[in-house]
Every structure is written in C-alpha cells, then in structure tokens.
Design a protein that fits this description.
Layout lengths: L14 H22 L4 H28 L5 H24 L1 H26 L1 H6 L4
Helix pairs in contact: 1-2, 1-4, 3-4
The chain binds fe (ii) ion (FE2).
Fe (ii) ion binds next to α4.
C-alpha cells in the first residue's frame, strides 16, 4: 500500500483526537512499509499489537465523549467500532493459518477503514463535540 498522508480534510475539529488519528495513521504506515519491503511476520505482529492497544484507548476516548455529550448517533458509531474489532479479530485468527495472504487483506482493510471512518462517522460528531467546548 502507498503511504497514507494525514490531510486537513481528515480533521474532526478536536485537536487531541486528530493527534490520535495521526498516531494510528503512522502505525498503519509502518505496516505499509513492512508490506512494501517484504515484511517479517514478527515486525508486522509487533506493530499490530501496538495498534490494537492504541485503538482500544482511542475508541474509549471517543465513546466517553459521546456518552458525556449524549451524542445522538452513538449507537451507529459504537457499532462501527465493534465491527472493526470483530474484523481485526477474524483476520488475525485467519493469519495464524495462512499468514501471508491475510497480512495483505488486513493491511488493505486498515488503510480503507480508517480513512472512511474518519471522513464519515467521526466527522459527524464534530458539531456536538465543539458545542460542548471540545476543540
Ligand atoms: Fe470513531
């Protein structure tokens, strides 16, 4: 995969969350680089572990704000987070059986999911978060 570049159009209007998204994109780019250079499974797994830990706390941050601000689209948003976690779990499990094929699928999923999710689901909460003083 080509390198992902964080652009202003990905901003959700909250600096701390933009920074978290940039960190996530940075980790995905580490995976993209591994992918281009003929990845070693150990390096890929180390980055995937790091990403999983980081994403767990990132989702928790967003979800805490949504609850606190009584965000109207919380149900749909939580569902997207759940779907993400389930897809990663499935692809990681399949990787144990057929690691080379699944790595590619996993990396492609990550690249697409994050840009789509930020541009659609995440940017919907900007107005609510901003109204509550979060910038
Ligand atoms: Fe989100």
């Amino acid at each position: 995969m080509a390198e992902l570049i964080w652009l202003e159009k990905y901003s959700v209007g909250v600096e701390a969350l933009d920074q978290q998204h940039q960190t996530i994109i940075g980790l995905i780019n580490e995976l993209n680089a591994e992918d281009r250079t003929g990845h070693t499974p150990d390096a890929v797994n180390r980055i995937l572990d790091q990403l999983a830990g980081y994403v767990t706390s990132h989702f928790r941050t967003e979800e805490d704000y949504m609850e606190r601000f009584d965000y109207e689209d919380i149900e749909a948003h939580l569902e997207e987070h759940v779907q993400y976690i389930e897809t990663i779990a499935r692809l990681t499990e399949e990787q144990i059986e057929d690691r080379d094929n699944v790595h590619g699928e996993l990396i492609a999923f990550l690249n697409h999911w994050w840009t789509d999710h930020i541009l659609e689901a995440d940017q919907k909460y900007t107005k609510t978060f901003n109204i509550h003083g979060l910038h």
